[in-house]
Each structure stands twice: as C-alpha cells, then as structure tokens.
Amino acid sequence: MSDEIPPDPGSPRARFGAEMRRLREAAQLSQSAVGRRLGCTQTQISRLESATRTPSKSDAERLDALFGTNGSTYFVDLREHIVARYGGPVWFMSWAQEVEPFALVMRSWDPLLVPGLLQTEAYARAIFKHAPRITPEEIEERVKARMWRKKILEGDNPPLFLTLIDESVLRRNVGGPEVMWEQLTYLLEIAQRPSVSVQLVDRLCLSGMVGPFMIAELPDNQPDAIHAGSAVEGQVSADPSVVTPIWNRYEAIRGWAYPDHMSLKMIEEARQEWT
C-alpha cells in the first residue's frame, strides 16, 4: 500500500502540475530535459507533474523562465497561492489540501497548545508572532489561513473531531489573560457541537510527550492518514507501518483522558483563573 496521499485534482498543486505537463509536451520536451533545466531529476519532475511534490520557489521561477513569455509569473503566482492558502510549512500542505477537507473522522492530540482547528484568531496570532524572523505580513497570512482551515468544522456535514489536549495547556500563557479567556470560552462553546469532543489528558501522561499528531479516517475505504509534528519537520503518511504506531499511541493517551463533562468543568475552572 502506497504512503502517498492521493492529490485532489482541483487543488492548486494539481493545477501547477497539469499546466507544467501541458507546456512541456507542447514544447516537445522530456521530463529529463526539463529536469536538467530546473537542476533536478526526472523523478522530481514526474512528482511535480503528478502533484505529489510541492514546488519550491526556484522550481516556479525556472518554469516561468522556461515556458513563460513577456515576464510571465504564472508558476510563481500559483505557488504563492498554494503557500498563502494553507499558511504553514511545505510538508503540511498535502495534509491541508488532500486529507483534512475530506476526512470523515479526525482524532487530534496536542501536548503543548490548543489544536489549530480550535484556535481563536488572537490565540493563533500570539503563537505565530513568535516564529523566528517572521514578518507582520507573514503573521497575518498564517492567521488568515488558520481561520480558513477551521471552516471544515462548520457546515451541514462536518467531520467528527475528537481532540485530546494536555491539561497543562489551559494554564500556558499564550497572548495574555484576555486571549486565554477568549480561547477557553471558545473551547467551551465549540465543545457543545455534536461533531466535536474535547477531552483533557492528565498531565502525568507521558505517552504523548513525543509530540502532537492527527489521525484522519477517509471515505471510500481509503487507508487512514496521519500527520505528526516535530521541532524540525513533520510527516504526512498513509503507510500502515507509520499509521499503526500512531493509533497505538493515541489509544495509550486516551487511557489518561478525563470524560467530556469533567473536561469541560476543568476548562471552565481554568477560564475563571484568567479573568
């Protein structure tokens, strides 16, 4: 079973690959020939065209130079759209484009922060502004993208979202008392939706200290997919050898979780401390 996440044919990354293939074939160039011009291999060109690789800035610039006319920036602009739309690291884009919007059930674990899909705008902004060398414009792009992602929990048929959060997150000062009070208020409100479950995990649980992750159950008998974060680079995979250990870890963490009603009471108590 492949560990590649099937691309969405309508995604910006898929359009990038389709246009690249069309122009290459019109110019009667092989993938190897284009690869030599871009400074990469035939395999990397194939992955760009099949939308299983996210283009780099230099890829886009060289494609515009190769196929464009009169200073065309088609590929650069499309790549910027890809990056701005999802507002995160390159590795995360395949998850945000091809997995998250189609999931039937998502299970989330976060030992450090409120998970992204449940963050308020102010909470997200407070996190992003501490990224090294980030500009004000980049902060706002990432906040906008995070708020856009949250739309998957809205509508008539949202996925079931089951999140586990370390209880210490409630008292981790992100943005100050006002931001924290608003964030915890939002957690209490969204947890009332039938499609959302918020459970706190006892701080003595050590099984989840390796880092945050999400598990997505997909339609049409597709294999489950995961994304797992780290301090350096995250991973998106549908490979059972990767997914199964994440499932096992999730169940180990869930064993330390408080029931929903008790978790909501704990959130309310913590919220009052931020007033």
From TrEMBL:
Q: Which SUPFAM superfamilies match?
A: lambda repressor-like DNA-binding domains (SSF47413)
**Which Gene3D superfamilies does the record associate with it?**
lambda repressor-like DNA-binding domains (1.10.260.40)
Matching entries from InterPro entries are given as: Cro/C1-type_HTH, DUF5753, Lambda_DNA-bd_dom_sf
Q: Please name the PROSITE patterns in this protein's record.
A: HTH_CROC1
Q: Which residues form the HTH cro/C1-type domain?
A: 20-74
SMART domains in alphabetical order: HTH_XRE
Name this polypeptide is given: Helix-turn-helix domain-containing protein
- What is the organism of origin for this protein? Streptosporangium amethystogenes subsp. fukuiense
